[in-house]
């Protein structure tokens, strides 16, 4: 989608019908703007959680920058360096810096060809180009970084497992983040029985690094999304539209529109947008709608676009039933990000 309209004013996301070609998808497989300059040095490990510093040191060795493991003295038996697996898998809660570390790997790895994308972006690439063409394009890549490796259906499980299974033997190294350990993918979400063998085989390609900690986004926040009344909202939209480009949509209209756009194109809905405005927020009752909103929030957060809203707080859009189900971690991550985005507005 080529953006030729004015860079200021008020627009409606529901009027946008973004398209994106396979080559454009491939070219966009780079870290989000907020992680353009992410490095291991700029990662601030929390001293209260030693696993953060330990993970950073392991990842620095993974890209060839870390110091070798300490060995014993003259009379001590030398410790053997652990064999490096072709992939590293960062497992931990949301807000502990996994994506920052993943982007640090991308920037630090001396690679001729490397790609960085969300799980959904890679599966969308397969959908756009076909499986064989995707394998041919990615084969020979030195590094694949996969953010939020959370599998929501058996079809995606099979596609990604096959894809990685074809790339790893050719020398491609892998780095992934997730809120779920690789040998537990699918648990609580779908009947993974038929896919356990593939999931466990994929798990063997990764060294799993557990990263503990608390959500850094909530350390300076009061824990609740900011809500505006109608007057405040109107003034904020008008002020933003006078100098930048703001979107203004009803919550219900946006939710309906997201069902008509493939999640891989959500980022194109946001092209040129400096502020997202949502009117009449309320709790969702349909899980498909909720998961589409999660995918949309991820793209808004990647682009670091502030959000303003009226109605119910955006931290209350997921029901208690949803928050206690198999997608719990996805919803909690979205709430964390929505809180941060409404405060940044």
From TrEMBL:
Superkingdom classification of source: Bacteria
Listed SUPFAM superfamilies: P-loop containing nucleoside triphosphate hydrolases
Annotated GO biological process: cell division
Residue intervals passing through the bilayer: none
Keyword tags: ATP-binding, Cell cycle, Cell division, Nucleotide-binding
Alphabetized PANTHER family for the sequence: AFG1-LIKE ATPASE (PTHR12169:SF6), ATPASE N2B (PTHR12169)
Protein name: Cell division protein ZapE
Encoding gene, per UniProt annotation: zapE
């Amino acid at each position: 989608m080529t953006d030729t309209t004015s860079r200021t004013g008020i627009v409606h996301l529901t009027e946008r019908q973004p398209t994106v070609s396979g080559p454009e998808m491939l070219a966009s497989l780079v870290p989000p703007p907020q992680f353009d300059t992410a490095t291991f040095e700029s990662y601030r490990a929390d001293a209260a959680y030693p696993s953060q510093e330990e993970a950073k040191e392991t990842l620095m060795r993974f890209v060839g920058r870390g110091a070798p493991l300490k060995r014993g003295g003259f009379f001590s038996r030398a410790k053997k360096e652990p064999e490096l697996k072709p992939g590293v898998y960062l497992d931990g809660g949301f807000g502990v810096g996994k994506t920052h570390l993943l982007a640090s790997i991308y920037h630090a790895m001396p690679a001729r060809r490397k790609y960085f994308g969300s799980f959904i972006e890679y599966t969308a690439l397969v959908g756009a180009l076909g499986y064989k063409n995707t394998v041919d394009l990615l084969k020979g890549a030195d590094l694949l970084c996969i953010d939020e490796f959370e599998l929501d259906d058996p079809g995606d499980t099979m596609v990604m497992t096959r894809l990685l299974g074809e790339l790893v033997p050719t020398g491609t190294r892998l780095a992934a983040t997730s809120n779920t350990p690789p040998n537990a993918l699918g648990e609580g979400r779908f009947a993974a029985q038929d896919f356990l063998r593939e999931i466990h085989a994929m798990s063997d390609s990764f060294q799993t690094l557990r990263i503990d900690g608390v959500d850094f986004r909530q350390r300076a926040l009061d824990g609740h999304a900011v809500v505006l009344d109608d007057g405040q909202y109107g003034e904020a939209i008008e002020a933003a539209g006078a100098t930048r480009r703001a979107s203004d949509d009803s919550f219900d209209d946006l939710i309906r529109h997201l069902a008509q756009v493939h999640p891989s194109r959500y980022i194109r809905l946001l092209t040129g947008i400096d502020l997202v405005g949502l009117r009449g927020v309320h709790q969702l009752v349909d899980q498909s709608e909720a998961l589409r909103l999660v995918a949309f929030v991820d793209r808004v957060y990647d682009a670091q676009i502030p959000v303003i809203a009226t109605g119910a707080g955006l931290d209350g859009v997921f029901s208690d039933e949803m928050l206690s189900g198999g997608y719990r971690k996805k919803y909690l991550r979205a709430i964390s990000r929505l809180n941060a985005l409404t405060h940044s507005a």
